[in-house]
Specification:
The strands form 2 sheets. A 4-stranded mixed sheet has the order 4-1-8-7, with no helix packed on it. It has a 4-stranded antiparallel sheet with strand order 3-2-5-6. It has 3 helices and 8 strands; from the N terminus they run αββββαββαββ. Helix 2 crosses helix 3. The longest helix has 10 residues. It is an alpha+beta fold. The N and C termini lie far apart (48 Å).
Length: 127
Amino acid sequence: MFLLVLTFVSCDPAQTLLISNETDADATVMVVFKKGDHYYKFVEPSASDTLIIDLEPKGQDSQETFRFGLGTWKIQSSLDSLVAAIDLIEIKTSKSKNLYQGEKQIKAFIKERIRGSRKELIEIKLK
């Protein structure tokens, strides 16, 4: 019985991206993907290469979660595969507008937001 339970339990955590708005105003995150077939996809393939995430103020509909599969973002190929799929990230709040473009900027932005006991979560908090 114990072996049967182990068969259905994975040791790997789910790779997750969590974007949350902690401001008192609406905020928007825009992610532009590179053309081509990439391992990590935020949404089902569509005609557009741009994903726009509108978040309401803190305490309301203020977060969006994307789950990718099993593993950890600490594995270099996982992070590199995600970065390779993204052309730019733009974050707009009522107080600021930030643009991250190019592999170095995007990788640094994502890498410093990796969280979780097993480094399974990328947490982007808009403040």
